[in-house]
Known about the structure:
alpha/beta; binds MU-OXO-diiron
Amino acid sequence: NIYYVGVDDRKTALFEGIWPIPYGISYNAYIIIDQKVALIEGGVKIDFAREFLNNVSSIIDPSTIDYIIINHMEPDHTGTIPVLYNLAKNAKIITTNLGKTMLANFYGISDNERVITVKDNDSINLGTRELKFITTPGVHWPETMMTYDKNLRILFSGDAFGTYGALNGKLFDDEIDLKFFLEEGKRYFTNIVGMYTKPVQSAISKLKSIDIDIIAPAHGPIWRSNKNKIIDLYDKLSKYESEPRVLVVYGTMYGFTEELAGYIAKKLVDNKINVRVYNADIIHPSYILSDAWDSRVILFGAPTYDGAPFPPVYYSAYIMFSKKLKNKYFGIFG
Ligand code: FEO
């Protein structure tokens, strides 16, 4: 009695307006039909309202929804809330206290009768099953929570344990190309959640006290056969565990800095050191950040441009700085 009503986004070039998603992304949402009906994740990005509402209506009349559960207020999950709120006229929205403030600020929804706030460990009964709410502030925004189906031991985890990549008709981790989704999961983590490593660690510790059979995130596949792989990935990345690897990130106008980058890479390889080389003029910082995250050493090479470091290299370095990437050796050359 759980239905997937999410959508694939294969038309947005840059997620959050920054990060390339050439293979798309999914906005997952779920309906649980019990004596009460609950819609988990609230909705999807507004651009996909028609498809989302069709998905919902193919399962159930929206006016019979009792609860719309918002784990996370970012508009990739709540863009459709204003539309759904009117259609599901008997539904109450469940969110955290801060989520309620955001709901009023973003969408002007502030009806105290219809917006219920929950705290950590609160639960609701749907009839034969109980949903428990686990607050996880900072994963990815401060209002965030997860929803746990105690009976089926399913964790609806919001952004946590999510990945880039459209699902293209498949849903579960044992149906998809696991290697691809773990790589896109790493890029998603570093790009989106990476700044919030402490909250991720707190959430992982908190989740150790509950039994989880299935993780149903808000992006990417549902983890039923390999859930430890995605938990381990998030755990390792949020601890800044690194590989013995040097990342050489350079930009070049006429090839001289590139010659230096090549020389350095060759010398490192001669010394049996694992090296990866990125031309920041061409490769988007999203990919460089993902590979930098678990490299032990990062070397930046840049020509001078208008009296400052060459902008493409500066941008890559700035993205690492803004994500508070740490526990690295950094070096510069030019
Ligand atoms: Fe998928 Fe932070 O929103």
